[in-house]
Automatic annotation (TrEMBL):
InterPro entries: MetalloPept_cat_dom_sf. It comes from Patella caerulea. This is Uncharacterized protein. Keywords: Signal. The lineage of its organism: Eukaryota, Metazoa, Spiralia, Lophotrochozoa, Mollusca. Residues 1-17 form the signal peptide.
Amino acid sequence: MARVTLIIGILVAVCVAAEPPSDDHLAGVQFVPLVHNPGYYTKASFLHRYVNNAGVIAHTKSGGSWVTISATTNCHSTALDKAALVVSKMVRHMPSEIFTHLATSHGVGIFSAKEGLTVYPEYSHLRDTPSCHGSCSGSCAHTCTFDGRKYESLGGLTSSISAVVDDNVICDAQDKNHHHQNTLVHEFGHLVNHYMPSQYKSQITAAYNHAKSNNLWNNGQYAMATIGEYWAEATASFFLSTVRTDVTGGLNMCGGSHVCSSDLAARQYIAKHDPMLYKVLNYVYTHNNPNIPGTLKPCV
């Protein structure tokens, strides 16, 4: 999903969204809409955890860089700690130069289905209103995705914060992805991409262009829709946190016929099939130690 440009006040950190996520970065957006659209506005209180580069999870921040994990008080009681655990597993082997940049983001925000992602201030400008209910035209266009869905009905979105519905994080019976995909891993991959140093973004762009022009993956699937989705689906495949085969472009399918048996097998397959992409994945998530298992899966 596209990064929403934020203007940060000099004295007070006030987030002002300049524009909604672009259609390009939402091309083929895969998230199943929530069954019930959230209410027009719900004031929320938030709980927090903090994760450092070593993967330590804390209730308060001390010195150094930390990624903030937030959840509304309406979320399931285990959602916050599960989200923090996922992030911990993704960053504990990350090079400090990547993590330090990532820590300048707003981190992760978990919301309940009845609230919707617009409960977070970073997405409040996308919130539906009574006058826009059922409409995506004219002055209501900013409340909708390019394909006519309300932003607040999505199960995940990333700008300066990765927002994910709690049902997917805890993998309960209401999970609209049916325990086939860890949306947080996908969305956090977007956040990593947004905040990494520019030289690594350039490497991902070069890898994507090479992969697309040489048909390394299924160009007709979601993973190849944009550079951002290429990286996010590759991240999910690198950690084997998805067993879907309809959106990954084959990134998680060893040999092209079946889902890889482990994250290490998936990494070996990507390394052989798309070495340019693998080079960045391997550095960003393992500091070039690919044999360290991520121990992630669709349900953690």
